[in-house]
């Protein structure tokens, strides 16, 4: 007759019900928070980010001057309501078809912050990325662009561009520049290669705030678009860049699952408490251990090892009694012990560092002599 061993299904469910409910509730809360936070922009150059790489200070400055700032990471917002100024931040990866849609959306003013080569080809034809970067520093405009002239010197660095003769180029070294304005397709396009100039970390330096306000505050509405990877547009002319392998919404689910796994790991993790003394099943005295080791030496006739162990023990006691360093030379040890005990140095050297005994009788004699020597040191 067989007997079932282990938990039944009912017992297992009762044991796991509460942890599963708690974990599920935490996952649900995290998902709600992530989905609710997805409506806000985040990351570098975000108008909602107070980090040094964010641009919350610039967004607040624009709103204080009557500009309504709308932050978004959705591609549709960059083409649907083409009213006012469109600011396109750095990052992301849009197809050429997406940039063409933005070009045809009807914006009167587009500001590109550190744009890609594909964005320049569509929205700012003739403007090319330079292979040289401008070192960080304060530069004067060197142009007649009103927004730059009013701002004066600004802290710029990073990517620079070359531009056609019809464009207005500012803040450069005479060949390459980091702020470029050109009129194309019935709209004004500003290209800014130095994204750090408008971040929280550098907005208060030089005329950075004035330059940002003059460039971006030309209309009462500003759409602040941070490109991502969610565009579903397709075009037969853009075969070099396919859709992302991982949809962007998966990141929220991945974070939620990672958080749930962390909670489960904490719940199921092994907790180390205080050390608990445990009685040994057998108590072995030190004398028994010594005798057992001696029997092993005798059985294997290892007189050399036994003699070495006896001499090492005796030397340790002598060095401790006379304050001799453990790594002292044999001659120094023999000289010190001879002066203390009055023994012949040659006999002491043979006793402490001599050849191993040839038989058991010699080993017993060595042990007796070493014992007498250590007793002389203890009781001179």
Structure in words:
The protein has 380 residues and is of the alpha/beta class. It has helices at residues 9-37, 56-64, 96-104, 117-123, 146-151, 208-216, 250-268, 286-299, 303-322, 330-341, 345-353, 360-378; strands at residues 68-72, 85-88, 109-113, 128-139, 154-162, 168-172, 177-184, 187-192, 221-225. It starts with 8 loop residues before the first helix and ends with a helix. Strands 1-9-2-3-8-7-6 form a 7-stranded mixed sheet, with helices on one face. Helix 9 packs parallel to helix 12. The model is unreliable at 1-6 and 233-243 (pLDDT under 50). It is elongated and about 115 Å long.
Run of helices and strands: HHEEHEHEHEEEEHEHHHHHH
Quaternary state of the chains: single chain
Question: Residue share in helices?
Answer: 40-55%
Number of strands: 9
Task: Report the structural category.
Answer: alpha/beta
Q: Can you list the strand order of the major beta sheet? A: 1-9-2-3-8-7-6
Strand content: 15-25%
Overall shape: elongated
């Amino acid at each position: 007759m067989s007997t079932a061993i282990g938990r039944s299904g009912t017992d297992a469910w009762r044991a796991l019900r509460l942890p599963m409910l708690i974990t599920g509730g935490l996952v649900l809360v995290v998902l709600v928070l992530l989905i609710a936070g997805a409506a806000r922009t985040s990351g570098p150059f975000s108008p909602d980010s107070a980090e040094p790489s964010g641009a919350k200070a610039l967004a607040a400055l624009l709103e204080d001057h009557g500009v309504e700032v709308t932050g978004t990471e959705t591609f549709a917002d960059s083409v649907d309501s083409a009213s006012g100024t469109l600011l396109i931040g750095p990052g992301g990866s849009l197809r050429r078809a997406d940039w063409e849609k933005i070009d045809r959306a009807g914006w009167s003013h587009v500001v590109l912050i550190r744009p890609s080569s594909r964005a320049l080809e569509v929205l700012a034809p003739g403007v090319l990325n330079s292979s040289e970067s401008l070192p960080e520093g304060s530069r004067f405009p060197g142009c007649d662009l009103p927004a730059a002239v009013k701002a004066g010197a600004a802290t710029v660095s990073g990517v620079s561009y070359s531009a056609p003769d019809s464009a207005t180029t500012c803040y450069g070294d005479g060949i390459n520049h980091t702020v470029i304005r050109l009129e194309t397709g019935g709209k004004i396009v500003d290209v800014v290669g130095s994204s750090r100039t408008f971040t929280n970390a550098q907005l208060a330096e030089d005329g950075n705030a004035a330059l940002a306000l003059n460039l971006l505050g030309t209309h009462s509405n500003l759409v602040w678009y941070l490109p991502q990877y969610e565009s579903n547009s397709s075009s037969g002319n853009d075969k070099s860049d396919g859709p992302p392998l991982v949809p962007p919404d998966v990141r929220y689910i991945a974070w939620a699952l990672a958080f749930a796994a962390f909670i489960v790991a904490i719940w199921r993790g092994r907790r180390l408490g205080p050390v608990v003394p445990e009685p040994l099943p057998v108590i072995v005295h030190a004398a028994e251990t010594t005798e057992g080791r001696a029997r092993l030496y005798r059985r294997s006739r290892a007189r050399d090892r036994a003699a070495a162990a006896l001499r090492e023990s005796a030397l340790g006691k002598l060095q401790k009694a006379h304050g001799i360093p453990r790594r002292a030379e044999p001659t120094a040890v023999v000289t010190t012990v001879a002066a203390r005990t009055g023994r012949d140095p040659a006999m002491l050297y043979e006793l402490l560092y001599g050849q191993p005994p040839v038989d058991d009788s010699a080993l017993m004699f060595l042990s007796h002599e070493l014992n007498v020597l250590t007793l002389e040191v203890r009781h001179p």
